Amino acid sequence: MGTLTSCSFSTMNLRFRMNPPISCNFSRRIQMKRMSKRSFGRLIISCCSSGGGNGNSNNNNGSSNDGKLEKDSSNLATVTEETAEERNGGGEASDSEDSSVSISSRPTISTVGSTYNNFQVDSFKLMELLGPEKVDPSDVKIIKEKLFGYSTFWVTKEEPFGDFGEGILFLGNLRGKSEDVFAKLQSQLSEVMGDKYNLFMVEEPNSEGPDPRGGPRVSFGMLRKEVSEPGPTSLWQYVIAFLLFLLTIGSSVELGIASQITRLPPEVVKYFTDPNAIEPPDMQLLVPFVDSALPLAYGVLGVQLFHEIGHFLAAFPRNVKLSIPYFIPNITLGSFGAITQFKSILPDRKAKVDISLAGPFAGAALSSSMFAVGLLLSSNPAAAAELIQVPSTLFQGSLLLGLISRATLGYGAMHGAMVSIHPLVIAGWCGLTTSAFNMLPVGCLDGGRAVQGAFGKGSLVGFGLATYSLLGLGVLGGPLSLPWGLYVLICQRSPEKPCLNDVTEVGTWRKAALGVAIFLVLLTLLPVWDELAEELGIGLVTTF
């Protein structure tokens, strides 16, 4: 243990004495996946040995330190000697040798700024060692020679590509139709490199203008497959998804019980409605109401499952893999929906739009059917025994749904403190509200993914800022705007990663469908203001 401690201390002294131009064992571009644990350990030990100032330090472990270790130590000592010469401005060799020998045996007096800069440089080197594996420079040379050229894409510049600069972005001039060139380059890359890399066609960053052939200027990025493709689902993720689903079942049942507020015992109602109530009631009083709460719970869960089935049905024919859904429980709506991740790279922006819209459209279709049937049953005297009474303020939470309910039920039924409706109305209402929230054009929500695919990542930034502003002001969603905004900021704020072909447009009809969907989302989440509610007879505004 003492040897390990002194070794770590010696290494730290060595690293703080480094300058950015130094080229030693730590500053080499070593790929972590190519370095074995034994080699990395020898590298650390060699640094400690050469920095200790004792020529016999390698003999403390006897024959365990082989010739390769001595070679590493001598190499590091040589580098340190060259560094000392650079610092002394070409001074005498004896001074450099003394500096190389005693680099860790005597303290170094330096300015705080210099020490901080050296530490910052070493942090970058550590991130390079521990970060994702980069593209092999030799492979870049081969790819430039065999893939790019006069007939496909003429490379003029190279830049880092990826979240950590682990890839290569080729900038230049396109020599053909973008889709044809991309398909040809993908085929040639597979022939030359096999399944080692993924090729992306993206819009050229900071482009000064469109391509002379029409459309945006394009560039080609390259990443290793193991770096660019999402990892498999782990056992713990399955466990978490299962626990969240159980909690969602509980929140859905709780919503069903709360919908029977006029039938619940007074002490239970007081505990959940009176903020001054401290002592909880006997929860055994809720058991008789569980059976009557199950139909509404089934409806809420059915909408969420139908939503996820829509995603999977749209992804399957495109060979796109999806993760298991992580349901988010909510006591007001039963569920906030689910987080479903892409487990493979999307082929193009059309697939991103179609898969993203399939879920909300499927959930909204089922919810609309439940909502419409529930309104019809609410006005049918034969189903009077199945009706429940809810506060009329519920219908003031959505401009679109409130107007539809007012037109169906009539002024007499809606202009009161309580309204008798069928449980399917609540299930459809919650499903439509959840689908609308998930269609908001922000972050990695379904609406954000669809906007990113249809209009580009730049448009998503503008849509996202507008959405955050409306949620923050409470304009959309009413009392649910704050918890939903926090949920998006914590879980869904990051945009989706680019597709393999992130340039080709999605077409006019997909953009039109998305525009109509966003317009309906705004009408669904926009509350009915008091003046309009009083004029239309939606609730008794003057009584509150």
TrEMBL record:
Chain positions covered by the region annotation Disordered: 54-107
Sequence ranges assigned to domain Peptidase M50 in this UniProt record: 297-456
Transmembrane intervals: 235-257, 357-377, 383-404, 416-440, 460-491, 512-529
Membrane-topology descriptor: Multi-pass membrane protein
Localization annotation: Plastid, Chloroplast membrane
Comp. bias intervals (Low complexity): 56-65
UniProtKB keywords: Chloroplast, Hydrolase, Membrane, Metalloprotease, Plastid, Protease, Transit peptide, Transmembrane, Transmembrane helix
Recorded family membership: Belongs to the peptidase M50B family.
Name the UniProt record assigns to this protein: Peptidase M50 domain-containing protein
